[in-house]
Design brief:
Layout lengths: L7 H20 L9 E3 L7 E3 L2 H6 L6 H20 L4 H20 L4 H22 L6 H12 L2 H14 L4 E6 L6 E5 L1 E4 L17 E4 L2 E9 L6 H8 L5 E9 L1 H12 L4 E6 L4 H15 L3 E2 L16 E8 L4 E6 L3 H17 L3 H16 L1 E6 L4 H24 L7 H7 L1
Parallel strand pairs: 3-13, 7-8, 7-10, 8-9
Antiparallel strand pairs: 1-2, 4-13, 5-12, 6-11, 7-11, 11-12
Helix pairs in contact: 1-3, 1-4, 3-4, 4-5, 5-14, 6-7, 6-13, 7-13, 11-12
C-alpha cells in the first residue's frame, strides 16, 4: 500500500480536526447533568451511555489523518478509565484544550519541545496542588454521595457504599446482569488477585474483554509449565467430562504449553484460561496454598514429589465462577472445605500477631483480606437490554469513582479545583 505523507501545518490541522470531532461527541456527557449518547451497534440493541470513554471507543472517522487525531484523544480517555475508572470526559476536555492552546503557541512561533516541557512542569504543579486540597473520604455516607453523583442515581450510590463498607475499598466486587428489574447484592466466598490472562485468545466475552468460566476446575502448579506433554494427560481426562472448563494457575505458562492451551480453546475442545500465580518466591507458594484451600485444590509441587504429568481429576479444585480480565482474576464461590477455610484464616491471624517485620505483616494482612473478605456480587436488573447495559455502566462508574475517592480524596467539581489551582 502506498503511504501518503503530510507535514507541518497541514498535518497539525488535520489531526486537530479529528481530535475536535471526537471531543465534540464526548463533551456532552460531562458532569452529573451531562446528556446521554445513543450508539448504533452492528448487532443487538443500540447502546445508551453517559460514559465518555464508551463514546470515544465507538468513533472511527473516514479521513485517515483526522482519525489519527481522534485515536490519540481516545488514548487519553482510555488511560484515565484504566487507572481511575471515571473522569474520562474531563480528561478528554483537558487533552483537547492542551492541544488547542499548544498549537496556537506553535503557530505564534513557540518552540514545540520547550512548550512540551512547560506543559509537563505545569501538570506536576497542578497535580501537587490538587493532592494537597483533596478532602479524605472515610464514612459510608460520604462514599454514598460520591457514588450517587458519579452514577447519577441515589439508589446505586447507597448500594455501592454498602458493598464497599462490607468488603473494603480493595475488596473484590463483580457486576453482573441480573434477571429481574431491581439491583441486588450477594456475598460469597471468593478471592481476587492482580494477575490477568496470559493470552487474549482466552477471552470469552469480547465486549467486556473478559474470560468468564462457569464452575471451572482449578489446577494449581508451583512451577513453570513449558511443554505440552506435561498437560496432555490431564487434558485427556477432562475430554471425557461434560464440564470442560479449566482455570490453570502456575508460576508461568509459556512456549509449547501456552500454545497448546490456546489451540484447544480456539478449537472449542476446552473452555479454559491460564493465569500467572500472584507473588514471588515463598509469597507465591503461600498464596497458591490459600487458593488451594478456597477451591479444594491440591498444589502440584515437584519439590514434594508431585509431578504435573501425573495429575488426576482428584487434584483439581472447583469454584462457582471465575472472571479474568487483562489485569485481575476473581474466583467466586470456592468449593473448598468450610472448616479448612476457617482454619486457614485463623492461621493467618496467628502469623500476623507473631510477625515482627512490618513488610511481612502487611503481606499477611493482604492475604487475610483476600481470603476472609469474600466477593460481593452486584446483579443489575432492568426492563430492556438497552436499559440494562446503561444501568450496568452507571454502577461500574459509581464503584470506580468511589474507590478512587477513598484512595485519594475528593476536590470541588465543575472545574472549580482547577480554577483554584491557578491562584
Amino acid at each position: 500500500m502506498v503511504k501518503q505523507l503530510i507535514f507541518q501545518d497541514e498535518a497539525r490541522r488535520r489531526l486537530k480536526a479529528g481530535l475536535d470531532k471526537m471531543a465534540q461527541a464526548v463533551v456532552i456527557t460531562l458532569g452529573p447533568k451531562g446528556r446521554n449518547v445513543t450508539l448504533d451497534r452492528k448487532w443487538g440493541s443500540p447502546l445508551i451511555t453517559h460514559d465518555g470513554v464508551t463514546v470515544a471507543k465507538e468513533i472511527e472517522l473516514a479521513d485517515p489523518y483526522e482519525n489519527m487525531g481522534a485515536q490519540l484523544l481516545k488514548e487519553a480517555a482510555t488511560k484515565t478509565s484504566d487507572s481511575a475508572g471515571d473522569g474520562t470526559t474531563t480528561a478528554t476536555i483537558l487533552a483537547q484544550a492542551l492541544v488547542s492552546e499548544g498549537l496556537k503557541n506553535v503557530a505564534a512561533g513557540a518552540d514545540p519541545m520547550l512548550l512540551k516541557r512547560g506543559m509537563e512542569k505545569a501538570v506536576r504543579a497542578v497535580s501537587a496542588i490538587l493532592k494537597q486540597s483533596a478532602i479524605p473520604i472515610t464514612t459510608r455516607a460520604e462514599m454514598a454521595n460520591v457514588a450517587s453523583i458519579s452514577a447519577q442515581n441515589p439508589e446505586i450510590g447507597a448500594l455501592v457504599a454498602e458493598v464497599l463498607d462490607r468488603v473494603g475499598k480493595d475488596g473484590a466486587v463483580t457486576i453482573e446482569e441480573g434477571q429481574g428489574l431491581a439491583i441486588e447484592t450477594d456475598y460469597v466466598e471468593g478471592m481476587q488477585f492482580d494477575r490477568g490472562y496470559l493470552s487474549p485468545y482466552f477471552i470469552t466475552q469480547a465486549e467486556e474483554m473478559e474470560a468468564v468460566l462457569e464452575e471451572p476446575y482449578v489446577l494449581l502448579h508451583d512451577s513453570r509449565i513449558r511443554t505440552a506433554g506435561d498437560l496432555v494427560p490431564l487434558l485427556q481426562q477432562l475430554v471425557s467430562l461434560s464440564n470442560r472448563n479449566l482455570l490453570v494457575i502456575a508460576e508461568d505458562i509459556e512456549g509449547e504449553a501456552l500454545a497448546t492451551l490456546v489451540l484447544n480453546k480456539l478449537q472449542g475442545t476446552f473452555n479454559l484460561v491460564a493465569v500467572k500465580a500472584p507473588g514471588f518466591g515463598d509469597g507465591r507458594k503461600a498464596v497458591l496454598q490459600d487458593i488451594a484451600v478456597l477451591t479444594g485444590s491440591t498444589v502440584i509441587n515437584e519439590e514434594t514429589g508431585r509431578r504435573l504429568e501425573a495429575t488426576t481429576l482428584a487434584d483439581l479444585g472447583c469454584c462457582d465462577k471465575v472472571i479474568v480480565t487483562k489485569n485481575e482474576t476473581t474466583i467466586i464461590g470456592g468449593h473448598g472445605n468450610e472448616a479448612a477455610i476457617k482454619a486457614r484464616i485463623g492461621q493467618l491471624k496467628t502469623e500476623i500477631n507473631h510477625e515482627t517485620s512490618d513488610y511481612n505483616q502487611q503481606k499477611l494482612q493482604e492475604r487475610l483480606a483476600r481470603l476472609a473478605g469474600g466477593v460481593a456480587i452486584i446483579r443489575v436488573g432492568a426492563a430492556t437490554g438497552a436499559e440494562l447495559k446503561e444501568k450496568k455502566r452507571r454502577v461500574e462508574n459509581g464503584l470506580s469513582a468511589t474507590r478512587a475517592a477513598v484512595e485519594e480524596g475528593v476536590v470541588p467539581g465543575g472545574g472549580v479545583a482547577l480554577l483554584n489551582a491557578i491562584s
